[in-house]
Specification:
heterodimer; A: 8-stranded antiparallel sheet; 3-stranded antiparallel sheet; 8 helices; globular; B: 92 residues; mainly alpha
Chain lengths: 312, 92
């Protein structure tokens, strides 16, 4: 298995594939795709396609097929999760202090709480998508952050790109990963779930076939605001960093964008909404770790905790 | 005698029907048998398990519901495949 590691999307990225020596071009091709996707969908880059779309809220804007795909998926997941997954929380993220890259925010030290209260805005479901014409109208006052879905979408596309030239490929971006094919030794892909209380420890080990493994956690992207510890997972119902039953939620799914959206929705919604969310998507498996390190999990997650079992 | 036979037949018929109905009602309201859900034994070496918690009840057991269960912590079981990169997930 050949692999390439680099930094992108503000995290460590690994692309790996079973290619012969001297045929690593496909790995570099996957890296190029990831770098290009970041340039197009990052909210931190003023010239990104996403930033330009946010500046034209209220008007119809032409968008690329990929951005159209991301927004269409986002709207569907927003509606499915009852708004627990909501890409329009960018103003809330900024109010919470996450208005620049995490390195810049942390370098500031303590961020003061903004004086402004949460402005009223139209719900994300009001976004209008004209797929035939390739254009989108974002409601006025709405700002979109694709950080909750784009990484999954990108890793899956990159892995599928690799799999055109390799029987087995994997892309992992900061713990959001997609596996295409299966290693030639016949074993399933082995994934360790980090203990959210101590990143050096492991809470569980998964064995998966093709598909995605994504984790949302309130322990990773944190900073200080007015002396309070803040994290990046906004509860769309309150506009504040979510108060959660769990520290992390890991989702196993056939698609990475689906896994990402539901990992966030499950973490934000907690125990009260977990059953409803999982019943409407029985292809998902979820493992949720609380502050004591105890794991609550869907019944089908046991399929991935034993090396002899199979994916759904 | 005819009257006696008629009365006996009627009584036997009525008693049979009544017994059948009573038995049906009794079975319909009988408690369901207890099912033991066994966690399948793992093939990995014996390693410490988490202490089980109070189970989370989300109502019913249909579909993909939640439960607390013991997960074997595989920290002591290393990844023996040296050609395979390590995959680790914990949020980012």
């Amino acid at each position: 298995m050949q692999s390439l590691e680099f930094r992108a999307m503000n995290t460590s990225v690994l692309v790996a594939a079973e290619v012969r020596n001297g045929e690593e071009a496909s790995l570099r091709e996957a890296k190029a795709f990831i770098d290009d996707s970041e340039r197009r969908f990052s909210r931190f880059l003023p010239d990104s396609e996403l930033s330009r779309l946010n500046r034209t809220a209220g008007a119809w804007s032409d968008v690329s097929d990929d951005l159209l795909d991301l927004l269409t998926l986002s709207k569907a997941y927003y509606q499915e999760t009852g708004g627990l997954f909501d890409p329009s929380i960018l103003p809330d993220l900024k109010r919470a202090g996450y208005d620049a890259s995490l390195e810049e925010v942390r370098a500031r030290g303590n961020t003061p709480t903004p004086i402004s209260t949460r402005p009223a805005k139209q719900p994300f479901s009001e976004i209008q998508i004209d797929a035939a014409a390739g254009r989108v109208r974002v409601p006025p006052g709405v700002e979109i952050d694709l950080g909750g879905i784009a990484k999954g979408w990108i890793v899956q596309k990159a892995a599928q790109l690799l799999s055109k030239q390799a029987p087995a490929a994997a892309v992992n971006a900061g713990g959001d990963m997609f596996f295409a094919g299966r290693p030639s030794d016949g074993a399933r892909w082995r994934v360790e779930i980090e203990d959210p209380r101590d990143p050096d420890k492991t809470s569980a080990v998964l064995h998966v076939n093709e598909g995605a493994v994504v984790t949302s956690s309130i322990s990773k992207r944190t900073w200080s605001q007015d002396g309070k510890n803040r994290h990046h997972l906004i509860d769309p119902r309150t506009g504040e960093p979510a108060e959660t039953d769990w520290l992390s939620v890991t989702v196993i799914a056939p698609q990475a964008d689906l896994a990402e959206a539901y990992a966030k929705a499950l973490l934000v919604g907690g125990q009260r909404t977990a059953r409803r969310l999982l019943l409407q998507r029985p292809c998902l498996a979820a493992l949720c770790i609380d502050r004591e390190g105890q794991i609550s999990a869907s019944q089908n997650s046991k399929d991935f905790l034993n090396d002899s079992n199979h994916f759904l | 005698m005819k009257i006696f036979r008629f009365a006996m037949n009627t009584w036997i018929t009525a008693a049979s029907i009544l017994s059948f109905l009573l038995g049906w009602v009794a079975l319909a309201h009988a408690p369901k048998p207890v099912q033991n859900i066994q966690t399948p034994a793992a093939s990995s070496p014996a390693i410490p398990t988490l202490v089980p918690l109070q189970s989370l009840q989300f109502g019913g057991d249909q579909g993909n519901t939640f439960q607390n269960f013991q997960v074997q912590i595989p920290v002591q079981v290393p990844n023996n495949n040296v050609s395979m990169p390590a995959f680790r997930t914990g949020g980012s």
